[in-house]
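User: Predict the full complex structure for these chains.
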Amino acid sequence: MIPIDLPIIWAFIIAFAVFVYVVMDGFDLGLGILFPLFPEKRDRDVIMNSVAPVWDGNETWLVLGGGGLMAAFPLAYAVLMPALYTPMIAMLLGLVFRGVAFEFRWRTTRARNRWDIAFFGGSLLATLAQGIALGAILQGVHVGGRSYAGGWWDWLTPFSILTGISLVIGYSLLGATWLVMKTEGELRDRAYHLSWVLLLAMLAAIAAVSIATPFLHIQYTERWFAWPNVLMTAQVPISVAVVTALLLRSLANKYDYQPFFLTLALFALSYAGLGISMYPYIVPQSITIWQAAAPENSQLFMLVGVAGLIPLILGYTAWAYWVFRGKVKPESGYH
Amino acid sequence: MFEGWDAVVLARAQFAFTMSFHIIFPAFSIGLASYLAVLEALWLATGREVYINLFNYWLKIFAVAFAMGVVSGIVMSYQFGTNWSAFSDKTGPVIGPLMAYEVLTAFFLEAGFLGVMLFGLNRVGPKLHFLATLMVAVGTLISAFWILSANSWMQTPAGHTVNEAGQFIAADWLKVIFNPSFPYRLVHMVLAAYLTTALVVGAVGAWHLLRDRHLAGPRVMFSMAMWMATLVAPIQIIAGDQHGLNTLEHQPVKIMAMEGHFESHKHGAPLILFGLPNQSAGRVDYAVEVPKLGSLILKHSLDAPMAGLNTVPRENWPPVPLTFWSFRIMVGLGFLMAALGLFSLLMRLSGKFYDSRLLHIFALLMGPAGFIAVLAGWITTETGRQPFTVYGLLRTAESASPLAAPAVASSLIAFIIVYFAVFAAGVIYLLRLMAAPPHPGEEGPSHEVPIRTAGITPAAGVTAEGAAR
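Assistant: Here is the predicted structure of the two-chain assembly.
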């Protein structure tokens, strides 16, 4: 029998949960960021209605990412969370504001504008914080023994600001292409226009992060450019070019459904690039996935649940999306 | 600023604050989800319109409360890592999987079916919609199962060993999950959630009956809520007593603090009704006590000896005044709930159930009692197990993250400002929804569709924007 490497399996599960989170919550955070560009109440109602039935399930993947990290890699969770203290708290507070806005803005006429601002501000803050956290993880954190040994502002560097802004752009693009898919008429046309601008910004962001990353650690440079690694790693930028071409074509030809899914493909490729840079570390350059792994019986105990339940969860989540499929029409909104 | 503060004390304050806010919402939504399932089942079975009206009425309230529960809950799932990283590293292998199972079996179930439950009745039809409601209700209960198992393991750890890195690891998962205090805590908490919801539903019903005692919706909800109080409040008192006996067996020091027993009693301990526990002097000042009753309740014998805190090293004492008083508040409210249940039964039997203003005022006043009792109960159990996070094995001071005090102080202030602003607004919206009576043809959370905004005059819109600026 081939011995199974549980930490590797769990690294993929956590990575999968985080990616599903990015896929699902990315567009709804993006919609929040784009909110000020749609000042009409009628448009805002449609935008809100397009995600209201699913946002809460989307955020559950974030809880799985965090909870799963604690359970499967407690050491990494214990080192990274204090290292990312400020961005994490900022993200949580941002999510509070935007989450309640979904319900609160329908409960008041007088203060609706206030909750619209909360929806925008919360979404922007949460996204920026997630991007900054990502950059802070990539650049590495100070570890002493089994705990974080740095200060509470270590995360703030030009690189983490760059990744923060990049994620804001990326989520906005997801939001814009989601609107292309889910709306009609003038709202959809504006979403098309936005998608063009944001796609160019996203490509610039991907390029900037790709150029900056190898300068963080020599290991990143070797991973990407050393022979024969480059044969494999070169597939990533090549695929990015192909997906970009398809995306441009779908925007030009106004294929409503393609831009969103192609943007997700861009995210998947960027995410794969991230994985290539980080592997085999979970705390870059300090702690590997095997060093951080919870004891085998913890990982095995959870694997049973994950194997059985994740397919079921994906099944009923897909059903919920199916129930609310199609374009959101202002006149027959389910709100 | 804050340089002189103890980072651990600040982290505890932050956890207590965010947790206290959070627990209010699940305590309400666990009960309300089940209530909604019952209402929809009654509607499907009888076809009576009053049930679907009530369902839609409470569904709107559920949506707002649930959103607040979700966002305050995400905070909790990350706070273990941000503020209690040493605890997370050591206990992650044991309680991490329990929480992961909570996410997998409960949170996804609730979130996955919530959208259909809130907005999907016309899209999927009544039968599938009822299934969605049922799944949400079951999800809230499964969630309670796992999180109370994790909490109970911290109170009464079992089925574990410790590895060379100092981490707790599970030796027997069934013993971890079904640790000694878990069944008692689970029953006590779920009943508390049901009672809390019943008291809110009862108070809303009473509020509308006080204004018009002939309204169909309020009559039905008031009657259902009072049956719950009549039947469940006495059961809860028994469950609480059993939980107390279990605590005496596994966490005797917590009982000493709850009872204010600083001294040992060789020939029967008194029951201290009231008094001012004086932790530094090690005595209860101005105690009003009933001799030997303490031993009778806890040991079922008048003369049973009971050890006091003087047998425990001082560094292992929990904060006695807080434990002592929060326990009395919880118990006092529990007996008031039972009194409300009994009084409503008497009124029901004498045919004055919908006419007795006294009953309606009593029920109205008891509206928030469940929340206060839940908070008091959690304060009792969580302060009573101090100074440990894993009882007897891991001290609270050794559990915290290596964070500078100013970092924790800043986040604590941010949480206080944001929570008060956001959740105060939420509570106002909830009360506003409750203040309007359910009416025939009640709509679900059919948020004002844009078409209806035609009715809102531009002037009002301008004023609203002006006010927000």
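Chain A touches chain B through 85 residues (CB under 8 Å).
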